[in-house]
Amino acid sequence: MAFNFNWSPLIADTSRARDMLTTALNKSPKPPIIVDDIIVNELNLGSTPPELEILEIGDLAEDRFRGIFKMQYAGDAFLTLKTKVQANPLNTYLSAKPSFASPQPLAAASGLTIPLQITLSDIRLSGFVILVFSKQKGITVVFRNDPLESLKVSSTFDSIPFVRDYLQKEIEGQLRVLFMEDLPAIIHRLSLRLWSSEYQEETQERLDASNDTTAPIDPLSSPPQDAVDAFGNPLDPAQISALSLDPTQDMHASFSQKNILRLAALSESQRTLSLFTPSICEAVFRAWASHDRPDSGANTPGLTQSSLSRIQTTFGSMKSNTSSVASGSTGNETQASRPSLVSYSSAPAGLSLGANRSRTHPMRKRKKRVVNLRKNPNGDVESSGVSTEANTPLQKEQEEELATPPKSPVKPSLRFETRHGSLDVGEPSRLPEKTNPEGLLPAAPLSEPPRLSKSKQKTKVPIPSPIIEEPEKEKRSGSSKPPLSKTRLQATQQTTSPLLRSLSFDRVSTLSSSSKNPLSPTYAESTTSGGILEQAWMLKMAQEIARKVQGEKDREAARDRQQHAPPPQAPKGPAAGLWEEEIDAPPAYHA
Amino acid sequence: MLDFMDNVQNAFYEASHWNIDNSYGALNATARALLDFQTPRGLKLQISSLSAPNFATSYTLGNVGVVDGSVSYLYSSLPLRREFKSSELDLHHAIRGYRHFQELRRPDEDWWWEVWHSGKRIDRRDTLLYGRIFLPQSTLEALYLRRLSPTRQLKISAVSDSSLNNGGTILALLQNDVGKYSTEYMYSTDSALMGVRGLYNFGMDPRVELTAPVTAQEIAEPVHGRFSAGAELYYGLLNKSGGISTGLRFTTLPNHTGFPYTMTLTLNPLMGNLSSTYAVKAGSNLALCSRFDFNFYSYESELQLGCELWRRRRDTDLEWAVKKLRADWKRPTVSPDDDVSGVLKARVDQDWRIGVLWEGRIKELLFTLGASLDLKRREQIFRGIGIELQYSS
Fold first, then answer.
1. Most buried of A483, A523, A574, B79, CB within 10 angstroms?
2. Residue A568: domain span
3. Keyword set for this entry (chain B) (predicted)?
């Protein structure tokens, strides 16, 4: 197998790269010797391409690629920078020192700023590169180690050894930062621009296909009038607004340093089971945004169901023994959550289970939910008591609510009580009243977290648990899910991609792979990228879990059949009291 | 406004007859006071006290960024008699402005300092110890000051801070001042910087007794100015870099009949920097200063203008009556500068960066109100604004 790397087009136009380098170089605080902005004057990538040795290829298709390379570069690339420096060494030396113990010279430290031209040449690089390419999401290059081996800095001050050494040291330090942090971002942005035309075309195609209308010049600003989806079903205005507005949100999927740190802390807490998870406002958590994952990737519906049922227990279940849900544990939650599902199944109201089933496929198959319901043996059995027509409108609402993280179970589900006389355990966490008025799937979660007031603190606790659980699950369900968040970039990927995925149109087409998502311009390769090394382990884990889930399912089905006949034993007191009790002791603490 | 502890240190210099102005480092002290003053940022409170003549404490609290503060203690073996109560202290001591040089005084004889008791010499060298810790940063400043002899002083200052190389730095400074000339030798542990400074005053030597009879010409044209020349040289052993500068100063003495003025010219031949300052005290309440910097390597130039204005309260109701009664009648005031309502300092440079400072006393509090502005930046004119309050007892 051979790859053909075409080096020449990269040499052609470097003006954009120059601009980006300029901004990248001026971003970090500069040493005191540099008293002006650093401007990249000339950038030549040279004619010698880097030597790449393929170590591993994780994913390979026509439009995507992921692999690890060993890179050796000893080419003739050079870079010329222009800036102004402080030529008086005493000045720079004293500027970094406290004035109390400074000699305080009278005029010996007076400054002399000199325009400086620095040429970086003879760059020797050697390192391991993780390259992820996807036609839609561009190129991501991440260095596993510090690639800079050596570098020659020639400047105006080569005759002064002190200044030369100083410059050499400072520039090497800056370049290391550049390679490790800034260069991946620059390359990604550049690659996005390179494919931006295709990217936009494809976006429009998808919009056309889903709307069956002629594409407007700016489909994002003016939603189509009478929209129907790919199956001919008319789309309701809320959905259209979601479709038309989401891409604009996609465009700004940049993250502040603070948020990235928080996300890193969050991912840390997943691994350490830390109780202190940072709250990230205006963020949609992967657990809620990515229920479409199993459909788009490997098909493990059991996992999704169990996770959802578990979530319901954490929010809505009574203090029955079934509520002993290991909300925090990431390893066994599928097993632990099973009994809770059983408790739901035991509820006589068939509707509740029907709703449960429908909720398990929240966003991925909007139009096919009925089909899904019938496919599901549990749902069929349980929803027998209630007519399907009665089910569907409710389900629709529930589905819309699903995108939102579950809020406090403070308000009991009045509707279900009145209609069926018994309390539906699963419902109250998603009340019809709480339905997002727009029905805008991605927007709803964004607006959710602030609504969690102090009074609902306790109920807030369970929320992290799905978050903890879900990425793990994704890893397992996805063919090769690496432990992400190695770098900041990946941290962004982790958080952006679920959002993007949830916003994407892929939920319509069930079989399309996640990488075909046309609307996510950011690093959505989190679904496919990362530690190939853990691939085998992940596969093994996935198989293991799938097996366990299957076993659970069988057991559950058996129990369902047993418990179907007897009347509900779970809801004993009045509904309101129950919910208050729930508030007092959220199930997350039971675990 | 000077920090309380700086004020106490100056009092120590004064009590031990050390002329801080007779040093190359203080060659352009006037221009620095009028042009390089610091404008406060944020709110800063200082409570200090000279609880005993030998011991002073000071606490500061500021809100630059987060709340930070410092605690400082000072011990002086020499009892300090100057008034430090904020309600009574002389504002001229606390506010640096135009420095009007006096005639050089003759250094103390060694034997003046000797104290004998029952055949034994029991006198001690005057010493000052000072320490200050900045609390959130855990930065420690320490100062050891010792008058080795009437013409010699050793000053060791140290800063301990984890952010510095080697965790801190120490500067040792040995100063000699015989009036006619002064020399300083210094060594800094940071990059092993060594330095020499010297200042020579032209004109008569204060050490030489006037033996010749005073001629008529000397009486007719008294010495009304002093001309000084100095140089400094630094060399860092570790980074093999150095610095050099020379300077000239002419300043008028008290028996100058016109406006007092000071001119300095400093030159850094290595870096090609030439700086000239001119300061004039255009009245008892007004001082003006200008500075022009020019670099003959890079042709960069800079101009700064500054002024200092003492505003005094006028009791207009009484003034006409006082004038009528006795034109040159001066009532003894309870404390010096009791009628000072405030001191305005302002500076501006050629880039329209402006610094304004309003200092004074309200009741028992000394206040400093300052702002720095940048008129070139329309979107953000105020670069910094702040207030400092000092109380001392």
1. A523
2. 257-347+440-590
3. Membrane, Mitochondrion, Mitochondrion outer membrane, Transmembrane, Transmembrane beta strand
